[in-house]
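From the thread on structure requests for the teaching lab: each student submitted one protein with a one-line request. Submission from student K.M.:

"Model Carbon monoxide dehydrogenase from Meiothermus hypogaeus NBRC 106114, tokens only."
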Amino acid sequence: MEITLKINGAEKKLNVEPRTLLVHAIRDAGLTGTHIGCDSSSCGVCTVVLDGKTAVKSCTMFAVMAEGHEITTIEGMAQGGKLHPLQQAFYDQHGLQCGYCTPGMIMSAHVLLQHNPNPTEEEIRFGLSGNLCRCTGYQNIVKAVQQAAQMLQQPAGAAADD
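Reply posted by the TA:
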């Protein structure tokens, strides 16, 4: 069946089987930043943002269910060639090693910061608890989210404290 998905602001027409998972449709649309991990919703590497406000593990949703919704992937985070503050913070704080979990972590952290712009360390850890990382030990991921929270609270054009 033919569906139209709005991904990162662009409409993508895809021919899919009704049982095609959203993660596969996104990757078939040429956006490979959304990773495939466990295929059982345990790891969170396939996390995307639905309608700008909900983190969704795209391996738990059929592509046909996403028609009519706005999907944001990691590729949609950077704007105008500039990294999103979360992407920059992950870089600055060494919040990644192999990078496989990073897109899902960033997407989940993005939704967390929309709902709670100044989370505690405990709230960050809870907010990211659906995303697994096998490399970092999470400490630098938490620091990255804390840095991004500070960056996002600054007025546009203000310099960040070092």
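TA comment: Residues 139-153 form the longest helix (15 residues). The beta strands are 2-7, 10-15, 47-50, 54-57, 70-72.
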